[in-house]
Amino acid sequence: MTPVDLVLLHAPSVYDFREKAILYGPVADLIPSSSMFEMYPIGFTSIAEYLEAAGYRVRIVNLAVRMLNDKKFDAEAFIKRLEAPLFGIDLHWLVSSHGAIEVAKIVKRCHPESKVIFGGFSSSYFYKELMGYPEVDYVMRGDTTEEPLRQLMACLKHKREPEEVPNLVWRDGQGEVRENPFSYIPADLSPVMVGHFENTVRSVIRYRDLASYAPFKGWAQYPITAVLTCKGCNENCVICGGSAAAFRKFYGRERPVFRSPEAVVQDIKQIERFSTGPIFILGDLLHAGEDYAHEVLRRLEKLRVKNQLIFELFNPAPRDLLHRMRRACPNFCLEISPESHDPKVRKASGRNYSNEDLERTMADALDAGCGRLDIFFMIGLPRQTPKSVMDTVDYCDYLFQKFNGDKRFSPFIAPISPFLDPGSLGFEQPERHGYQVLFKTLEEHRQALVAPSWKYSLNYETRWMSRQQIVDTAYEAILRLNRLRAKYNTIFVEMADIGEQRIKAAWEMANHIDGILARGDLRELPLLKQQIDEINAFPVVERKQLELPVGLVKLKFLQSLWMWATGKK
Question: N or C: which end of the chain has fewer CB within 10 A?
Fold first, then answer.
């Protein structure tokens, strides 16, 4: 393979998932990727673009997707064929911790002279512990690491010690771990993410490796793409590792920094050139103020993008904004996460608004012509009991009735899993928020990921719900909500039947695994692998319901590749 300066590797959640018997449960049902969390962070494409503009060659390899798509794909043999002085591995969310460390071990085994660098939220949080693994040479802290990484690349090129590289934690020639000042926290994002989508398309052509650049399994059939509006957050949701408090304490960012409306719309324009798939606008546009939100929508209205756009709201929104969304992008989709039907639980979780305000926003959105309205509820919240969760499902029934069974309304419910985020208020101040945190270290979380059932991966219990109650309540709530969807004809009966079979089979298997562990006869677990794999492979009804029509995606994407290959834009 062609030598490059940096290879960025994304690992599956559990490296040897193809060999292990693990019941993953409903841990990834509401995101496009599978329980292997194979979607690599958007920072990969931004880093690649920034470094290539500085004269370096960067290649992205999504090992997780390659391993999911091909049972015979040999990740170690593939890594061995790669050549680079530096290999970057993301540890953004903690669910990647098992695979990320295992991949680092493989890189060092195959390329002992190359360096390994980690980055991402969880890397920043656990940087000291990460440096205790001999396979890790560097950790780059922070949420915007393109420029520090460029400086590190220059040090490697000229064989200099990286003493002046900001945000870097590294091991010197004597093996001592050194922490450079965590000082690079840019308040201006204009130098990054300028043309990262177009750069990714060019890289696919250069390396003739579309398979390694796919963001998640099945992306070619459902190419949803995300556009980042900001870094940091104004909210303090108790369960979130990307909250305002987490950014201040662990990632050095005192307040959010927003990309310009022009940059946000430019990203959408880039995506439209190679895909007719939906585009998710990450972050509530109102967080930068109403003027910002309206300016983004004004530019979108002028652009007349054909892709279906998905917006998210963190709080109820003004009616005029929702109508502006309709004018800017007809058939837009909207996502709101009230967490619970109970305002007391919602407030304890960090979101403080009434059901009246929530329902008003929902009604206004549907009236404005929203193509689909997705409402997300969670299980495992402060002050939430099993009964409260079932009352949330009943509230969904009430909403179906309130909106006359409108098929655009889609409620979802899922457990906080597999982990309560390190850095979140719930993790950092568990007693205050009613949590008992069961794992604290990186290695404890890594080992939890390979437990035989997702129940044993949960790193928390609450004052109101044990791990067992969280598992049982999640299965029951998902089952009941699935039946509600069938009752109001928002999903086909056949799909509802598949969803019911999946949940019942998984629930039964979870109890069976509990029995095996209680007896202590672990020899039984490998014998269940085929049955567990079949349950894990069941179609996820909730994920399918979240998918939007995408049109002639494949034709347009391949046409775009050809145009880039021939230099025609």
Answer: C
